[in-house]
């Protein structure tokens, strides 16, 4: 079975907190900040002070005279904590996430979630289904393909792929859903976007393929990255 929180985060638009970032491998360390100080600073800015743990960490890192990753990690380790996942965390539902979001298509993912909803009273499942059904069908399908392609690509290939996707979305070559979403959320604020096409089954593979093609327009140059020196380490996808 695939490890599929990437599909869940990307398709459902879920947000991860610090503990969740650490748990799924997107972060290496967690240093607690003092949220209370930040909130208080909005009322009395002159009384705001950076938490001592962060100040001490910053001072320690300033003294580092090496780029050795192990040396840097050793310093951060002295201040890092191992936070517990909140009871409501989606990562406590990894079995469901992996079972449903490892399906081949968006349609199959939603169908699998609906089966889970019929056998579970967990509100998280219903909320996730609702999030997927409210989203742009086109965006869901290009996002799913992008996430899965990225697992086997280099960092440079990922950046180029995502750059092309964003350019096509911003140009509105194949769909105006981006502009419709902005209208519904930011302008008219009716939160009732009219996606085109409106249904997942109407977004065919040929339409999805177009978002990954190079743009044939001199005003939209392709992303050309400088050659990167290899550090002898393989960088693997975390999600």
Automatic annotation (TrEMBL):
A Pfam match: ECH_2
Record's keyword terms, sorted: Hydrolase
A Gene Ontology biological process term: L-valine catabolic process
Enzyme class: hydrolase
UniProt EC number: 3.1.2.4
InterPro entries: ClpP/crotonase-like_dom_sf, ECH_dom, HIBYL-CoA-H
Pathway(s) served: Amino-acid degradation; L-valine degradation
Reaction catalysis annotation: 3-hydroxy-2-methylpropanoyl-CoA + H2O = 3-hydroxy-2-methylpropanoate + CoA + H(+)
SUPFAM superfamilies in the record: ClpP/crotonase
GO MF entry, a single one: 3-hydroxyisobutyryl-CoA hydrolase activity
Domain of life: Eukaryota
Domain Enoyl-CoA hydratase/isomerase per the UniProt entry, residue ranges: 52-212
Protein family per UniProt: Belongs to the enoyl-CoA hydratase/isomerase family.
Function text: Hydrolyzes 3-hydroxyisobutyryl-CoA (HIBYL-CoA), a saline catabolite. Has high activity toward isobutyryl-CoA. Could be an isobutyryl-CoA dehydrogenase that functions in valine catabolism.
Protein name in UniProt: 3-hydroxyisobutyryl-CoA hydrolase
């Amino acid at each position: 079975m695939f490890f599929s929180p990437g599909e869940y985060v990307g398709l459902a638009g879920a947000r991860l907190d610090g503990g969740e970032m650490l748990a799924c491998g997107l972060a290496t360390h967690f240093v607690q900040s003092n949220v209370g100080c930040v909130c208080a600073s909005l009322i009395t800015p002159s009384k705001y002070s950076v938490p001592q743990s962060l100040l001490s960490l910053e001072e320690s890192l300033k003294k580092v005279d090496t780029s050795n990753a192990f040396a840097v990690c050793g310093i951060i380790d002295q201040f890092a904590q191992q936070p517990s996942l909140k009871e409501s965390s989606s990562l406590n539902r990894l079995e469901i996430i992996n079972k449903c979001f490892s399906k081949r298509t968006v349609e199959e993912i939603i169908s699998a979630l609906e089966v889970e909803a019929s056998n579970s009273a967990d509100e998280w499942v219903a909320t996730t289904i609702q999030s997927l059904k409210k989203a742009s069908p086109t965006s869901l399908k290009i996002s799913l393909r992008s996430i899965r392609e990225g697992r086997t690509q280099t960092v440079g290939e990922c950046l180029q792929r995502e750059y092309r996707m964003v350019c096509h979305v911003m140009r509105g070559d194949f769909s105006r859903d981006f502009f419709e979403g902005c209208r519904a959320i930011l302008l008219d604020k009716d939160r009732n976007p009219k996606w085109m096409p409106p249904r997942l089954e109407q977004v065919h593979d040929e339409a999805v393929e177009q978002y990954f093609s190079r743009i044939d327009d001199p005003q939209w140059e392709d992303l050309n990255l400088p050659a990167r020196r290899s550090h002898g380490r393989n960088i693997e996808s975390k999600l």
